[in-house]
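User: Sequence in, structure out. Go.
Assistant: Echoing your sequence, followed by the structure tokens.
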Amino acid sequence: MNRRSFIHLATPLILYGCGNRKINKKEPENFIMTVNGTVAVDAMGLTLTHEHLFSIFGLDAEEKPEYNIDELESTVLPFLQQAKSAGCKTIIEFGI
């Protein structure tokens, strides 16, 4: 499936799914779903979207990247701390 066909097919589904529907009365009116549950949009604050905190660009999609966790943490953590001190409260991560 090419990109144009995918967008043509997916757009109505995405728009329907993003409608302003309350699923549960305990959930805020405007929220995002996270792995830890819902978060009110107002509580997100400054948000960096579509971030790739760690990635090996150019790697064949079928190859699993191997990361040195200690090296990864020591490389990425200072940037995350700098973003936090600049007021960033939320990061949306895409990619492992």
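User: And one key feature?
Assistant: The chain has three helices and four strands.
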